[in-house]
Specification:
Order of helices and strands: HHEHEHEHEHEEEEEHEEHHEEEHHEH
Distance between the termini: 23 Å
Shape: globular
Helix content: 25-40%
Strand content: 15-25%
Strand order of the largest sheet: 1-9-8-5-4-2-3
């Protein structure tokens, strides 16, 4: 019987487990001092001025869109190659997603296609660092400066990645990270928004707690609990707990080692698949470092046969993603590269618990189908 090889896995260190237990014993597990410490350490790690921890990356993106103060009906140029939450936040805000095409060799948004979609109604650009590999940020930010557009980066896959020597999260726009269970850094679930401006960061902290000017922890003082607060605007319920934050703080100390292991796994896949015609792992330029959240490969033909064969032998594999314009909640678009990609891409197992012999087994199974 074949050994099960999962597509993804959650791994927590003993330090993280101890940190979680300490919070549970402390008498306070909601948003508090651990969240503040996690925010400071995360911001320092990625070179951002401020980090605002949230309940999920989707929450962080929703707050980012709110901070951008875009008028209802404004157009936002975005990628179709992403989990739908990226673009759902635009619909929730009454904005119009306009899909640019992608690069089939990276899965990232194509800057030339962004430029071709800009109109007088365009107010922002939403980019995703697909699979953890940074998109062309120089091109994106140049277009944004030229046309006075807001940039929002969905970095859900990209914690620890860098573009031309600068970490993702440090480039000046609003950048959301995910700490969902299988991410490179997991807090079980959660997210954070990187922000360069102090006033925007203060507003983001209000927005994550219903627009209230002080959270429950802040209203606890040495003289007791103070119930009075002000509500500056309508916000959301999207806080992170101290329990999640403590796990995240422990995870920050092992992030680099985990990402290095992911890079080793990616190199092993690349070497093992190199002799197969029509099989193309995502290409990486030397000026960018990927976080390798996913290991995505395109197949000129036979993708579905490979997927079925892997599953028959207990190997987890998946498609990231169905082009978003193919869902009925979005407007169909002419996106030849994105549509080809969605029909030919496959994600192979990628996580730090993956052993070299398991990687070799996946390569062997792929080879069986294609030779």
């Amino acid at each position: 019987m074949d050994e099960e090889i999962p597509l993804a896995s959650s791994t927590f260190s003993e330090e993280a487990i101890r940190a979680a237990a300490d919070v549970l014993r402390s008498g306070w597990s909601g948003p508090g001092s651990e969240v503040g410490a996690f925010e400071r350490e995360l911001a320092a790690r990625v070179g951002a001025s401020f980090a605002v921890a949230t309940g999920s990356a989707t929450d962080a993106l929703q707050i980012a869109v709110t901070l951008a103060d875009l008028p209802v009906g404004a157009e936002v140029i975005t990628t179709p190659n992403t989990f739908v939450s990226t673009n759902h936040v635009l619909l929730w805000a009454g904005l119009v997603p306009v899909f640019a095409d992608i690069e089939t060799h990276t899965g990232n948004i194509d800057v030339d296609s962004i430029a071709a979609q800009i109109t007088e109604a365009t107010r922002a650009i939403m980019v995703v660092h697909y699979a953890g590999y940074p998109c062309d940020l120089d091109g994106v930010y140049e277009l944004a400066r030229r046309h006075e557009l807001v940039v929002i980066e969905d970095g859900a896959h990209a914690l620890g990645a860098s573009y031309r020597g600068r970490p993702i999260g440090s480039h000046g726009g609003l950048c959301a990270f995910s700490f969902q269970s299988t991410k490179n850094l997991s807090t079980v679930d959660g997210g954070a928004l990187m922000i360069g401006d102090g006033e925007l960061a203060a507003r983001a902290r209000r927005l994550r707690w219903m627009g209230i000017d002080a959270d429950t922890y802040e209203r606890h003082t040495e003289t007791g609990y103070h119930w009075e607060y002000d509500v500056a605007e309508v916000g959301f319920r999207s806080t992170m707990s101290d329990l999640n934050a403590a796990i995240g703080r422990a995870g920050l100390s092992t992030l680099d080692a985990g990402n290095a292991r992911r890079a080793e796994i990616a190199d092993r896949y690349r070497a093992g698949l190199a002799t197969l015609d029509g099989v193309e792992p995502m290409r990486h330029d030397k000026d960018r470092i990927s976080a390798h959240y996913l290991f995505a490969v395109t197949f000129e033909e036979g993708r579905d046969r490979v997927l079925a064969h892997l599953r028959d032998h207990g190997v987890g594999a998946g498609v990231h993603y169905k082009a978003n314009d193919r869902y009925p909640v979005y407007k169909p678009a002419y996106l030849p590269a994105a549509h080809w990609f969605a029909d030919h891409v496959l994600s192979l197992p990628m996580h730090i618990d993956l052993r070299d012999d398991q990687v070799d087994r996946v390569i062997e199974l792929v080879t069986e189908v294609l030779t």
